[in-house]
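Researcher: Please generate the 3D structure of the following complex. Treat every line as part of one assembly.
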Amino acid sequence: MKEINIDVLKDAASRLMFDMTEDQYHTLLNEFDVLTKQMATISKIEGLEKYEPMTFPFDCTVTFLREDVPVTPLSVEEALSNAGSVLNNEIKLPKVVG
Amino acid sequence: MNFEAIIGLEIHVEMRTKSKMFSPSPNAFSKEPNTHVTPLDMAFPGTMPVVNKQAVINAIRVANALHMEIDHTLYFDRKNYFYADLPKGFQITQQFRPIGKNGYLTILDKEGNPKKIHIERIHMEEDTCKQLHMASYSLLDYNRAGVPLVEIVSCPEMRNGLEAMRYVEAIRNIVVYTLTSDGKMEEGSLRCDVNVSLRPYGSDKFGTKVELKNLNSLKNIEVALDYEIARQSACLLAGTPVQQETRRFDEASGKTVLMRVKTDAVDYKYFCEPNIAPIHLSDEFVDEAIKTCPELYEDKKARYEGFGLSSTDAAIILSDIEMSRYFEKAIVNAKNIKTVANFLIVEVNGYLNKNGMAITEFPLSGDNLAKIAAYQDDGYSHKQCVDIFNYCLKEGVEPEEAKTTLKIEKQISDDGLVLSFVTEVLDANPQSIADFKAGKDRAVGFLIGQVMKAAKGKVNPGAVAKIMNEELAKR
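Model: Done. Output below.
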């Protein structure tokens, strides 16, 4: 497994266009340390390779399905209120394909 | 050709539900962008997906029509990717446990023989938003984000463009007649991605796969695939390896054009959707979805053929579900269903084409069309009935009123009366009889014309022709 260190986190943040402080990187790294230690502990269990990955982690099912009834949608103003740039009621982005 | 084509299709079908797959946002066409959006569609924090019951019912119906094993527990997964078309950062789909698997449908191959195409899986997922790419920016409309989709994945068992076209046509008929979708390829509610590769005949290894996109009509599927098979074949014969790439079909040139070369497969890091617990579907629920499914295309076609319609005529009526609905109404009290079908296929379709109209806008009711068709079965000529039909459309009146206003009288089919007209004409035209005996067949046409003239058009031309031939043989 790839080692998670500050450089890996900074690379990931850069590619995801996240702006993070040094403190936040350290908090995140500490959280990853806990996770990787847990993974290492689990990996020590013998015979793990014999088990198929689970489709769902809990052995439970529900029966609820939503009735096909539409609700009143958001107004255009509300729907676009968080958009950085809008043109003709569409969200405007830098061109995302070449 | 030296190579065998291996063709597999992935078809995405937009479902015609009232609300979206996981959100209660309206699922309807809107010209105004971002008007059919709820917080879940925009991935607002705290929103949770809830599965649409009708979308599940539709998927069960399609899976059943495709003879599939139906999974009675629904599982959903996240397909992770970072792109603006789904703001959650993932698409909810059914990667590991599709609702249906191991199905098939039967098409006709090039020689007209039945061919079974196996279907690997059918699963439910959500559509992405609509993107409009301009020269220097992109625009996003989230009305389509979250619209329910079924994806149908075939096994790679088609061998040419015609088979692929017939496969898509059969899928379209299933989704349209189960009322799952309007199946309009040109509007994007049924979208095809086609994978095609070539291999030498006899080989069991697959060649390099090329993906074709933007196939927005049945005809384009056939043309694009036949072009692509010829292109790859020419590459291989020239010793040039086929590249793994995505190509689009250029309708104007009838050719496929390179979009992008494929490098490594994208890792979508699928994992189970933790916000939707597995949903158990009871046997009763699944059975009820199947039992209440509207009549399937193939069953309807068999029923129409049972009325005496040819396979082609039945397919023409069924090519438009609204046309089929009109036909069903028209035949409720019809005297002769075949005559109604003929009027619908020829006269009604002609009128619709001429006026650029859809059958839903056609002003004559099915009942009135059946009345006009019944006149023909009662002895009025087809031409007289067409006159009534046209007058009804022009003046907006009932068939009975049109018949009275046009002073249309029933043609004489009585053998005795027709014989008297025929005898009179034959006696007056000995030269035409001689011409006929000398092998001039056109003389019969002249003689029939004389009878029609003498009877002022009131005799049935079919009856005249029959008796004329009998009388000529006697002379």
